[in-house]
Amino acid sequence: AMSEQWDVGRALALSGLFRLLQGAGRACAAPFLTLYLRHLGLPAPLVGVVAGAKHLAAALWAPLCSRCPKGRRKRRLLVASSLLGSAGASLLLTLIPPADGDAGYKYCNASQQLGDRGAAAATVPGPGTSSHVSAVTNAKATREPEMPAPYRPPLRGLKKETSGLGSAAIDLAGNAEESLYPTESNELSLFKTTLPAAGGSYESGNLSDHRKDAQGVSFEAVQNIFQDREHQIFLMVLGAVVLWELLATSLEWTVDENLYEYLDFVDATDRYGKLWIWSYLGASVGACSIAVFVDQLNCFLSSTITRLAVHFYGYALLITLSLLVSVFFPIHVPKRTDHVNKTAKALALLWSDGRAILYAITVFLTGAAGSAVQNFLFWQMQDRGSSELYMGLSVAVGLLAEILLYFFKGKLLRTFSSVKIVAVSLSLLAVQLLCYSFLWTAWSVLLVQILSAFSSGALWWVVNMTVDDIATPGMERSLHAVLQSLCYGGGASLGSFAGGFVVKHFGLAVLYRAWCVCLVLWLFLILIVQSKLPRQKKINYSRLLAADSSDMSDSDEENERDWLVKAMKDESFN
């Protein structure tokens, strides 16, 4: 018994350390991904497509990852290969050249950029900036002839670079607002660029010539898409990000399932529920640490690599360290695997309960609304002159607020009804979006992020508690996985796809306010529908038995995982 207790403690300690490193690694790179894509010169619609594909790939791949290999060596090999593969895929992003040679310089930290441009204008480079200015100048000189003239990105204000510090500041402000507030001139120039020869096809009176010209224009348009430097960079980024997410999802699911199976074997699954705290702590430390480090660097590490590439270097380093921890993981391979399609069964259970349907739609909408913040909040902060430290702190404040509120979870759930908690959560998320639409300074984001404790953390308490009440034995984790997929794979992916185009055509403030209105309308609708539903609460008897006696398992006597059956089987095998 003592050795078994020691094994459980050792497994939990290793898992906590692994999650700490994983959370820190993820937070080094994932929150800053869209900011990095902006520095590569990708516009908001293409960034939204990349972010949406990332969420969708994770949601579709996760159910396949749950079918772990049976052998211990195969599982260890899968974990190691996923770790190294995800690190390598993240480093691929740093090798992709920018689509716009001036994008990284234009979006660099405002104070540093003004200092660098002022030094360049005075032709007196300061210490540590001379190599940077010459690298940027050489990069522009070598890159511009390679780009076809119709597709060269507009570089406003370059002629004014040597006119003084004041003109540089005006140019920076104009370029910053350009990405979040659309202009008619951009749309007009894009229209003229994409249809260079459309008028000539109508001059001929011959119908066959007319069709040939139309086909030629269509083929030329498709050809231009793949020849356009911006679209080439987009396709490379899309492939690298999707590959990275597939490998990272495979890693997380394999490690998570393996730990749960081990704890289930030794009847200690009750200690599994608090391991997420280590991930949040690691993410808080990782986001702040990498932000402080990046703030100390020059805008460019080389002629084509911006300092934001350090985020992915940090991710690769922490992932490699977690590989050393994974070597000592205890691995338990179940003797019998269940081949039932639990995803379809989980969907049927959700569909059978009215409140579960309401909460499933709620997490879908919150995932879509949250994608606007995840994808473009750092863009907005950068345009307000924010340093990366404030960005890292905004990540940490939201996560730490959820951890602190978690210690009051039992008291809050006993004091307030589920409907009230959901109503407060949706209201505070709407308030967050409204505040972001009127963002005045970068540091104000930290105050707004405190509300994430309720808008994200408390909402999921109620959702998970509701689905646990309708879950049959062994289906709790499958139900939670389906809801996570609805939130991130469904809501966040669709929100990302649409959000980029809304930012381009209407601006980021309109996107925030639109989601704010949608959440308020859904809040009123959910309150009306909830009052019409019957107030019968389904009792999960397996959870009730587990609460009454710690010696009882989460399954009934007919289930193969009952502790007595396990003990008899183990005795017979011994």
TrEMBL record:
It is a multi-pass membrane protein. GO terms for molecular function: transmembrane transporter activity. Coiled coil: none annotated. Keywords: Membrane, Transmembrane, Transmembrane helix. Gene3D superfamilies: MFS general substrate transporter like domains (1.20.1250.20). The chain crosses the membrane at residues 45-65, 77-96, 233-255, 275-294, 314-335, 356-377, 389-408, 420-440, 446-467, 479-503, 509-529. InterPro entries: MFS_assoc_dom, MFS_dom, MFS_MFSD6, MFS_trans_sf. GO terms for cellular component: membrane. It is found in: Membrane. Residues 119-154 are annotated as: Disordered. Residues 355-574 form the Major facilitator superfamily (MFS) profile domain. Residues 128-140 have a biased composition (Polar residues). Its main location: membrane. Belongs to the major facilitator superfamily. MFSD6 family. This is Major facilitator superfamily domain-containing protein 6-like protein B. It comes from Eudyptes sclateri (Erect-crested penguin).
